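On clarity, I found the account of how folds are encoded harder to follow than it need be. Since the whole study asks how a given chain folds, the encoding of that fold should be made plain. For illustration, here is how one protein appears when written out as sequence plus structure tokens:

:::
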Amino acid sequence: MVTLENLREEMKKYLSQDKELHMVEVHADTVDEALADAAVQLDTKVGNLHYEVIERGSDGFLGLGKKPWKLKIYQDPSTITKKVKLASDGLFDNDEEGGDIQVQQRDGMFYVRHFGSDICLKVVNPIGEGTPVNLKDVLNEIKREDTTEFDEGLVSKYVKQGTEGKYNTVGQYKHVSAGDVLISVDITKDELKGSIIVSPPSMSGSEASEEMIMRSLQQQGVIEQCFNMDKIREFVDNPVYNIPFEVAAALLPVDGRDAYISYNFETDPKKLKAKVSDSGQINYKEWNQIQNVIADQPLAVKISAERGKGGKTLFGRYMEAKNGKDIQIQLGPNVKLDRDGVTIKAEVDGEVKLINGKVTVEPVKYLDAVNVKTGDIKFVGTVIIKGGVEEGYKVEATNIEVNGIVDKSRLEATGNIIVRQGIYGKGEGYVKAGKSLWAKFINDTTVEVEENVIVNDSIVNSSVTAMKNIVVKGKKAQIMGGHLLATEEICAKNIGSPGGGTETILEVGIDPRAKKRLEGLQKIQGDRTKEYEKIELDMQTLEQQKKLRKKLPQEKEEKLKDFKNRMNQITSELEEINHEIDTIQAHLRELKAIGKVKVEGTVYAGVKVYIRDVLDEVKLDTSAVTFYYDKSFSKRGAYEPPSLSAEEEQPDGYTAD
């Protein structure tokens, strides 16, 4: 029984829906375009829209008198209610990339359609916790005056299982063909779009099925490739009568993509950024402004132009597409084209850049200075610095040339290093060269080179190791303080200082690297031996306690076990260390280099000179002398000039290999 209260509740419901109802007025050339526009404005699907025709449109004649459609479009209130409910329950999730709304649950849906003399049912299962289709609702819609028979069990089965998106026959009705829908097909003059206009069926008439719509299109000459099956199915599910509904579209041609160069490096220097730590802090010493490449490294590849893909009109007429345009590969200096004809490779080590559209590799990096503006420098080619290297920075390269002062910093090169002014290490500076080092002076710095160290002024309070020669020349040419090791010769004008002062130690005729390794191993050997002896005493104490008490507490028993394990470990380590020490000592004894220390001016008292591990400590100032090794003794003779040739003493700039 319908009461006043029931009516009030219904009215409240409709009022609530009306408040949520949004409407837009759209002007467009076709109804489909108007619906698509409204769907965007109302943020919903076209299938959720209803509309009223305010003013019918017209294509005119030959483009003259063309008139747009004017529609009032609004969303189906039932879909608004569902959307609000789902949103309020927090059931919409934003896709991480596109931001599209994904429905996590959806109510079940059903469609009852009359095709030919068949009653057909389509059931879409619910998603998530959506409400399933109600069997009673389906049966009520199937039971019409003209229904002759239906299989209720089959209907129940489909309601539970769904129909997999298809319409399945569940019964028969009294079909009156005179009441069938009428389908007309409208093709645009350019043959790009096809719409159907369907008149509604009368009682007992057949509705429009997929087959009927497709057949109508085919009868008008529309090729099957142009059918929009999604739109056709949408119409069958939610028919729109007496209004054009687009169901076919031409296969538009796709122009081919032009050829282009795909780069394996960042072509825009502005996008090169400083390194950021895991905590988000920027390391201003690591600007990452240099993109290093090595010889034969692929730098870029040409992607060939694509052929266009032709299209077809609704009637199958061919629509031509443009082919992509080809381009010529432009090569800059120090790059080459691989055998495949499309890959650009580096010819040399260096920095890759895109200059005037050409891939270029520059083997030399020019800098005004190394400071906060540049950060640390790491380059596989040669670095030439107009100014100096400021305190705290690091330069790594193949060759390094510094025209200014090198402050307390680190220079490391696999080739040569040239410092035209000098090095102020302040006790922490470090220079390492895979070949030779040239400098005006070296002060309070650790230096390690694989060939020669040539200095034009002085070496003061520094640790310098050279696998060949250390030569100090010039007016002052002094070595004062520090520890210098060379395999072949150490040459200077003056060594040490008047009155003693800072200790000066020179070693020649040995392998400096092996000597340092030997000293390190001997220190470790001593430390491990002391540790072994201490553990041995501790073990003896615990074992004495065990003899007296016959049993130790658990804690001490475990400690005794740990001591035994550690002693075994130390024994194993000492065996390896002793073997390496013996090997190095044998190498040093067999070394054929006969080192010399050559002093043109004065060697001051207090200087210690080692010739193949034989010490000659200078007691009195001595002038114009050469220290050398003879029959297991260190001897002194008349001054001899350096063996290093004039060509070897002069740097060949950054081109020195």
Remarks:
- DSSP finds ten helices and 44 strands in the chain.
